[in-house]
């Protein structure tokens, strides 16, 4: 059995504000250690439960946060930027399942450090269904027939995952108080929980179906301001709404939609504020 892990940073226990997830800030190194430990709890349990191969994709910011020298020795790590499929780089039909660790809720919703890709996105849609990083990544997994078995993060992220994927196992390592505060498990307790939930998720894998994406999906991104939409609209094939900061793209499949989203959000980040 082969397991794919995508690990973000905002949903890791104890990481509650930008000082933990921004490499320029004073708590970032602490965040790296806690993030790496959470990954190892899941990786080690996966091998103990019969997985023969585990591939971990570092999925936060510049995607070079995990401390490779401290990872489980049998792990293969995908690290660095730029990656054509970002948070789901390396995912394909060869995997029996996927786990999303350290994940957070989508933009404009409750949750610790909630956002969708960039802070300039207010809402993102596939065929009028609002989604965040979790949903979009699960759709890519579904394209390959791979079910998302486990999601770890705060309590609001668990709710988002359960609404998207019936039967999924969730590990709640912290409970939201506000966007930058939470009641957090200690790393020791979060590790215990992650080991238990990984066992549960692997045991229940036959009950979870892949989140199959629609054919020829329409991607729509609502930005925070019109300047961001104008930048995103520079991508060929897009249309822009005259009355709202919303850009639309008709994709041939979810993989094209995903890459279009990456281009549009990267362009939107060029917007200057004065």
From TrEMBL:
InterPro entries given for it?
Answer: DppA_N, Peptidase_M55, Peptidase_M55_sf
Any one GO MF term held by the record is: aminopeptidase activity
Q: Which residues form a coiled coil?
A: none
Which domain of life does this protein belong to?
A: Bacteria
* Name of the top EC class for this enzyme: hydrolase
**Keyword annotations:** Aminopeptidase, Hydrolase, Protease
Query: What Enzyme Commission number(s) apply to this enzyme?
Result: 3.4.11.-
Against SUPFAM superfamilies, the record matches this protein to: Dipeptide transport protein
Q: What is this protein called?
A: D-amino peptidase
* Species of the source: Paenibacillus aceris
């Amino acid at each position: 059995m082969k397991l794919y892990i995508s690990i973000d940073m905002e949903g890791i226990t104890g990481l509650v504000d930008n000082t933990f997830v921004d490499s320029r800030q004073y708590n970032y190194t602490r965040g790296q250690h806690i993030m790496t430990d959470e990954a190892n709890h899941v990786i080690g349990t996966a091998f103990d439960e019969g997985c023969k191969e585990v591939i971990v994709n570092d999925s936060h910011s510049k995607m070079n946060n995990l401390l490779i020298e401290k990872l489980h020795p049998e792990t293969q790590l995908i690290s660095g930027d730029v990656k054509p499929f970002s948070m789901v780089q390396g995912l394909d039909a060869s995997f029996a399942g996927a786990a999303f660790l350290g994940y957070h809720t989508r933009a404009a919703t409750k949750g610790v450090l909630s956002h969708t890709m960039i802070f300039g996105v207010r809402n993102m849609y596939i065929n009028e269904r609002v989604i965040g990083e979790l949903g979009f990544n699960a759709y890519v997994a579904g394209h390959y027939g791979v079910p998302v078995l486990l999601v770890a993060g705060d309590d609001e992220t668990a709710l988002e995952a359960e609404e998207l994927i019936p039967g999924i196992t969730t590990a709640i390592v912290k409970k939201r108080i506000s966007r930058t505060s939470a009641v957090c498990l200690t790393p020791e307790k979060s590790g215990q929980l992650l080991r238990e939930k990984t066992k549960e998720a692997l045991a229940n894998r036959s009950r979870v179906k892949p989140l199959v994406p629609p054919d020829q999906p329409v991607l729509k991104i609502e930005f925070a301001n019109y300047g961001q939409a104008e930048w995103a609209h520079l991508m060929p094939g897009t249309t822009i709404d005259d009355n709202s900061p919303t850009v639309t793209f008709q994709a041939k499949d979810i993989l094209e939609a995903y890459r279009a989203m990456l281009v549009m959000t990267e362009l939107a980040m060029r917007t200057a504020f004065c």
